[in-house]
Amino acid sequence: MTTRTTDSVKPSALPEELLGVARTMSLLWSFRPRTAIFNLARLLGERRGDGRALTQEDVKSATRLLDERGALVGMPHRDGYYRLADDLRAPLYRELLETRRPEQLREALFQNDGYRPERGQHYYWPIHDRAATVGILRLALFSGVPAAEVKTMISAIGRSLDAGGILQEAVFEAFDGAIVERVVPELRWDLLFEAATTSCLAWRADLVPVCDWAIERFEAEGEAMPAHLRLALAECCIAGRLSMPPGCSPGSTPGPPTRCVRRCWPRPAVGRTRRRPSRRH
Known about the structure:
With 281 residues, the chain is mainly alpha-helical. Helix content is 55%, strand content 2%. It has a domain at 188-267.
């Protein structure tokens, strides 16, 4: 399989016999082998068009046809591992969240990858497969797992694997603001702050949509957005890392950075005044 990307294949263009495998691959999210795809498809109850259970040969045929349509991306330097192209995996993942019970999705994916949260949290992360960890963390974030449990997961992952890189792949790749809305605010703000501070330190094209979406959320939610996140977004605007919010177009008066900061900069609480430093004589 060759490594390729596409911007033309949409879920509506796929025949029914390919959709079950494609949905399964969207839930796995990262690069996985056919065995993982087949096992998860069975756990999800995906079936052929005639109602019969999927076989390994069905999965093999479906991945071949998806590849021929330019709908798969092969893992660099590792044959037999692939994921869906972004134009497919993002909308199909959202469809799963909207049409399946979150408990069903978690039970299937966690069982497929040997993750047993009912046995209690571990100091070290118990899953050694990086790609499996990406899929587990993504589903935990977007399916309503409590914030405290997710934070414990991230801490455990960080003791065994690259938590920052895994979080990047799980949340920010093929970014979809509609499902980020599902994340509890406490975690959602933390994720957006991570993207904003990373963008301030070094410009990242893949994080621009994330930060632009964060600014849109500020336009909608205003003071509900934490001060530290607004400060990070203001810094990114000043540094020219992001698109300017409405009203911050070039040529506006005052200039774009100033207006961006005025929009995002936390305002002092009403009734509070700043004390001027006393002069020593």
